[in-house]
Write a structure and sequence with these properties.
CATH topology: Rossmann fold
Number of helices: 7
Bound molecules: zinc ion
Strand order of the largest sheet: 7-6-5-8-9-10
Order of helices and strands: HHEEEEHEHEEEHEEEHHE
Helix content: 25-40%
Structural class: alpha/beta
Strand content: 15-25%
Radius of gyration: 20 Å
CATH architecture: 3-Layer(aba) Sandwich
Distance between the termini: 35 Å
């Protein structure tokens, strides 16, 4: 079927029964589904550790409630775009990409990572061609590297990236991502809570090291239990959803 025909049948106001979503409501939903952690030790990019993390992809598990409202809120922001394909990184943006593609009546396609962890290719069997209008959808943006990878995939197919849509913008690099970039929420990262393990030392890693030394030097069981409990909180959790 011709993709323009698909689009023209689907530039409908697809789900008018979906309630609109304010920023406050979205924050409440994120908190309600346990997507916000304020007190941890997260690897959010290959060399960046943070204390706080937000996992917007968790809202997408509530397929017919939260997910539907979030997808529609994003769609409303960009419904003027002519979209033939929605490209998302798998797995982080897959559910949102599918839901947004459904609203546009576009194809939902996914990119996959290579052995170096970068998004290098479309999943086998998917394709985009010269002249296609590709919208990138992901749950969040952190360093912008995933978006840049997806844009490279689109460019190599001689098609056009017409925009980027995400739930959460935590773009710490300030990189310009696309001529058209829409985020439902923007979060200012507190610089003092972002640790670059390449150029500096992570305070949380330092603290963990001190506790490990403390654990090694004490044999008092009550004390060891207390230190173990603190160490548990400082375990580095690899968060690949914000690359
Ligand atoms: Zn660290």
């Amino acid at each position: 079927m011709d993709i323009d025909a698909v689009h023209s049948t689907s530039s409908r106001n697809a789900t008018p029964f979906v309630e609109s979503l304010s920023e406050d409501e979205l924050w409440a939903i994120l908190a309600g589904v346990g997507a916000i952690s304020q007190d941890g030790h997260y690897k959010v990019a290959p060399t960046i550790h943070t204390r706080q993390v937000i996992w917007p992809h968790l809202v997408m598990q509530y397929a017919s409630t939260h997910a539907r409202r979030v997808a529609y809120a994003l769609y409303e922001r960009i419904s003027d775009l002519k979209v033939s394909h929605v490209l998302s990184p798998s797995p982080s943006g897959q559910a949102l990409g599918f839901a947004v593609a459904d609203l546009f009546g576009a194809r939902a396609i996914y990119a996959t990572t290579g052995s170096d962890g970068r998004y290098q290719m479309l999943h086998p069997g998917f394709e985009i061609r010269r002249g296609d209008h590709v919208l990138i959808v992901d749950d969040g943006v952190y360093t912008g590297s995933t978006i840049a990878d997806l844009q490279d995939i689109i460019r190599s197919s001689y098609s056009e990236c017409i925009g980027v849509g995400v739930i959460l913008d935590r773009n710490v690099t300030g990189m310009e991502l696309a001529p058209r970039f829409e985020a439902l929420l923007k979060v200012e990262i507190k610089v003092h809570e972002v640790y670059n393990t390449l150029t500096g030392t992570c305070k949380l890693c330092e603290w963990r090291k001190e506790l490990e030394d403390e654990l090694a030097s004490t044999s008092i069981e009550g004390e060891r239990e207390r230190v173990r409990s603190q160490l548990g909180k400082l375990r580095v959790i690899d968060d690949r959803t914000f690359d």
